[in-house]
């Protein structure tokens, strides 16, 4: 009889994505209501929690032998579950390397290490291929597009670390790369004047939970002077693709960035 966890609750979408990719979805007995990948998970698995709120009894009713949580944002539910005697593994991916590490970690937790390493190898190959394409473009043009990534609009919040790193891999230059290293949203809040001064060539919006509205961005006072606005280089990448620290950020986020940067 296996001593590995058989009844897993995943409170964020990226661990669901990984378990399905490893062929271990039968272990999942509960998911977050915000899970979007893979689409079949929403049909097959019971939703037992939101993201930072919900009824712990719904989780306990699944009789989990492991709950996978995300970062300090789920610190309270992690604490409550631990107090209730449930094993909890709190993951905190913040970089591209962390995403690859998450795949390896989840694979080891369920005894699928070989499959996890194979998946990591595929993701690393895609990253290398993207770097090569970006390098060829730079050799040809001598230019890197300056990119402002907007995670939220009110207040302005710029991109998080793995997004900034993906921009770099795809051949762009994140105008707020230093800020992106902070895990706290409050430290990634540029003023409108700072964005104007940064003069990005491209603006990418991924407003978590709502549609990006390029016309609102273009209509901000003084933003007409920004090259990206003047040239109408305003693009959306869905938050379910780029703001999820799972394989999808690499498998779908990177190709989308390459497409946008092909000026």
Which tags fit this structure?
263 residues; alpha/beta; Rossmann fold; 2 domains; 5-stranded parallel beta sheet; 5-stranded mixed beta sheet; 45% helix; globular
Explain the overall architecture.
This protein is of the alpha/beta class and 263 residues long. The protein folds into two domains: 8-92, Rossmann fold (3-Layer(aba) Sandwich); 118-261, 3-Layer(aba) Sandwich (Rossmann fold). It has helices spanning 13-21, 39-44, 56-60, 75-83, 96-109, 113-141, 161-169, 177-180, 192-198, 214-218, 227-230, 239-242, 248-261, and strands at residues 8-10, 28-32, 47-49, 66-70, 88-91, 146-153, 156-158, 173-174, 202-205, 234-236. The chain has a five-stranded parallel sheet with strand order 3-2-1-4-5, sandwiched between helices. Strands 6, 7, 8, 9 and 10 form a five-stranded mixed sheet that branches. The longest helix is centred in the middle third of the chain and has 29 residues, at 113-141. It starts with 7 loop residues before the first strand and ends with a helix. The mean pLDDT is 95.
Provide the fold topology.
Blueprint: E1 8-10, H1 13-21, E2 28-32, H2 39-44, E3 47-49, H3 56-60, E4 66-70, H4 75-83, E5 88-91, H5 96-109, H6 113-141, E6 146-153, E7 156-158, H7 161-169, E8 173-174, H8 177-180, H9 192-198, E9 202-205, H10 214-218, H11 227-230, E10 234-236, H12 239-242, H13 248-261
Helix pairs in contact: 5-6, 6-13, 7-13
